């Protein structure tokens, strides 16, 4: 291995053995037929309302023999939904851009330049935890080297024990 | 007036959500500066590799565990790591398999928790035994791509990486033969893919990690006092806790991992109930914290508002659907064909708009994910779109009260039950 960095980004295709889909393999005809039929029904559930909508908006000219409606409130609802989606799109676009610029600023000017977490509290919390772990499961060195360790039921950690320990020691998480 | 606007927004919630995620996903790809591109990943020299502990929490995983460990020991392009299995009271042959594998692999360690107490608890004990400064949470039915550890470390070692608490990878479905599996393949691209991109790019915050494969900085877990043991989903709660402590959460769409997903409706429904409960718990827990500093927490407010919409919409949808069904039955029995056709036409009209926006979101997300490798699954999108709606709404509604009980301390003790697994490299059989 050299010290010269080289890219590791795209060196591997997907591990083929891990993705298994009989639909896209040879054979398995019953599975394919079954899935196509089911899918056709699901597709109809999605597509039929869309066809009815456009057929109605064109007063039946899209597919003459297919169902279409002429309700006045249908046209009103369509207009409302069109306007609402357009308005939502514009508002979301503007808000997303504002958040995005804030985010890009943090990526470039905050995260690389300063620690955003409380390093002092972190050290205090680690010390509290190490003391508790050492009392229960042995010192750090033995914990990190043992290859098998069994924890008896009475050594299990109660649900809010660590939270309470932090509170007692003045490093509560708020 | 206010109520009317509120009801309108709630009615349009799925459409508004789809617009948000699509715009966010496109912004992530185009304007967001924090993402890694293929060319940005550098190979880390062997002598500079930080120590990693791959932690596998498991309970009765005899079907998968050996295959997963063999893979992790042989296929990864990384050297400085150990595998620590936290066996949480397995009652099958998992302990025997682990005993045998320990003789085979020097860097395999086993922590046995005799009394099954849940994944978060096993993790919290495992943390104290882990030698790594970085901890990869790796489920027993999950494997990362071979160069994943290298890529994960690239994020942590980058200039801004000093504040990175965790990097969560992009999940891909391994077993895709059945329709229920295909739906999840589509879902993990649309939900996990585009929503996480959007949260990362626009908000710079993440709602949840994928607990099945996430690399944590050990310090950033200890800073939160470990994982919350009384929550249904430890990966949602830790994401919020870390970000509240000032750490950055990162989604890495170019780090792929492969997972065995539930392949029966029952298993899937139970999994989703757990996710929905975990989501509601996070919502209840974090509302107060966010409200204390609304300006500083503006991106988190957006995520909580989204979650609020999702919960309210689920109830709204179920109540509206029930009312609609009763109305249709009434018109059928009173032989009022004009009202019947009118009601159905109006319902179809609204569903047509939802379908069109949904298709738009799916096309965008499948195109963005994994360089478009899953575009062919667009063929199976209709199935996903038709029945997933119902399941998500039902799971959120049915787990709402249990989630409230958990957050306010009235819930019982949680242990875990692993779903039925199938071997990853198993071939053949339509099952």
From TrEMBL, chain A:
**Organism, as annotated:** Pseudolactococcus chungangensis
What does the UniProt keyword field contain? Answer: Membrane, Transmembrane, Transmembrane helix
What residue ranges are annotated as transmembrane?
36-60, 80-101
Q: What is this protein called?
A: Poly-beta-1,6-N-acetyl-D-glucosamine biosynthesis protein PgaD
